[in-house]
Write a structure and sequence with these properties.
With 417 residues, this protein is an all-alpha fold. The chain has helices at 2-14, 17-20, 23-30, 34-62, 64-81, 88-114, 122-151, 155-158, 160-174, 189-192, 195-225, 230-237, 239-258, 261-278, 287-314, 321-354, 356-381, 397-400, 403-406. The protein has a single domain (2-178, 191-397), classed as Growth Hormone, Chain: A (Up-down Bundle).
């Protein structure tokens, strides 16, 4: 049940993919352009990036269940608040509130998974979490395109309010109550300042920052350049997160069998190839090629994310799985914020100098080059032993752990300590 609820919580939060296909309608409603609309992304993503780490630390003190439930209730409130939005500033404020709720869910979901499963099944469990997240990202554009055409841009937020509230009720009924206290401290520096952890966090930032070229610029390409309707554009746009969702379970099984190195490097290489291919797209590009490029980016990210997250979680003992999960999500979302800012600057400069197409091509080419560099780093820096047996939460860790292990938060009374 904790694994299922974690996956469903990630799904509800990741349905924010509905918003991106609504960017052209939102930009028209508030009189802003693609460069300014990026603040709709930044205010949300930066907020949940910072909140996710705080949520993880809170989860290590109080247990992940109450923090997770609180995130769902705040999310339901934030989705309802879009009814009152009357200007661009109010829209950004609502995005901040939504980011708080999303960060509490994202920051605690990995700990719900790893604390509920034995170590040898962490890859599969995290694969299911990534499947839930990827499913939300995949169906979000399709739902968003249909809703924008039928009801306008506000509907891409409002439909999620009852979903978050219902899941909040399920979490109250199914997850155990939190603890009344615990050790309040950040992970020791010798745990998170080690090269394997910092490398994994850096790669997550680069991969997610690069991939966000699709989320920022592809809606304008699909609707504005190819002339697709929001509904049809949503069908194309969903291919990227659909690829992520499809590869996540495969990546989880590969991680449990061979370790993180191969799937991480291959995933980053595939993502880079897709981004570089999209950089050459224009109004004459065949629709099949557009679909293939978008799907390849998503498949590469899906193959990369699960082993990368498993590597971070394995580096910390059970007592700090909350902080580990929050740190992992913070790194990937800070990468998104940096990617949005850099891509926005590159697109703005090149589009002013050479037109929209030049800005589009430069943004994707730069993202593809960054992702190629990340693939090279992953190929030369990851050793299988760092995941299987040498990390703080891997096999053999029990013999070394003392107080932190015995104080690990429990998800079920039967969980072996």
């Amino acid at each position: 049940m904790p694994v299922a609820l974690a996956a469903l919580g990630a799904l509800v939060v990741s349905l924010d993919a509905s918003v991106n296909i609504a960017f052209p309608a939102m930009a028209a409603a508030f009189g802003v352009g693609p460069v300014a609309i990026r603040w709709v992304i930044v205010c949300y993503v930066l907020t949940y990036a910072l909140t996710s780490f705080v949520a993880g630390v809170l989860a290590d003190r109080l247990g992940p269940a109450p923090v997770f439930r609180t995130g769902l209730w705040i999310s339901a409130l934030a989705f309802t608040a879009y009814l009152a939005v009357g200007g661009f500033g109010a829209l950004l404020a609502a995005r901040v509130l939504q980011g708080v709720g999303g960060g509490l869910v994202y920051g605690t979901a990995p700990a719900l998974v790893t604390l509920a499963l034995p170590r040898e099944r962490h890859g599969r469990g995290l694969g299911r979490l990534a499947l839930g997240l990827g499913t939300g990202l995949a169906v979000g554009p399709l739902i968003g395109g249909a809703l924008v055409e039928a009801f306008g841009w506000r509907s891409v937020f409002l439909y999620r309010a009852p979903l978050a509230a219902a899941l909040g009720v399920a979490a109250v009924m199914s997850l155990p109550p939190g603890r009344r206290g615990g050790v309040w401290r950040l992970p020791p520096r010798q745990e998170w300042l080690r090269a394997p952890v910092l490398t994994a966090l850096g790669l997550a930032a680069l991969a997610n920052g690069s991939q966000f070229a699709v989320w920022l610029l592809a809606p304008f390409y699909l609707v504005g350049v190819l002339g697709l309707s929001p509904a049809v554009g949503g069908l194309f746009f969903m291919l990227t997160p659909l690829g992520t969702a499809a590869l996540a379970p495969v990546a989880g099984r590969l991680t449990d069998r061979v370790g993180p190195r191969a799937p991480m490097a291959l995933g980053l290489a595939a993502e880079s190839a897709g981004l570089l291919a999209i950089s050459s797209f224009d109004a004459a590009t065949p629709r099949l090629a557009v679909a293939a490029g978008l799907a390849l980016v998503g498949a590469g990210l899906g193959l990369f994310q699960v082993p990368n997250l498993a590597r971070v979680m394995a580096a910390f003992p059970p007592a700090r799985q909350g902080a580990a999960g929050g740190l992992a999500f913070m790194s990937r979302t800070l990468g998104v914020v940096a990617g949005v800012e850099v891509l926005g600057a590159v697109f703005g400069a090149r589009s002013r100098a050479g037109g929209w197409q030049d800005g589009f091509s430069a943004g994707f080419a730069g993202a593809g080059a960054v992702c190629a560099l990340a693939a090279l780093i992953a190929a030369v820096s990851t050793r299988r032993g760092e995941y299987h047996g040498q990390a703080g939460n891997g096999p053999g860790a029990a013999g070394r752990a003392t107080a932190p292990t015995t104080s690990a938060p429990s998800i079920t009374p039967e969980e072996p300590r």
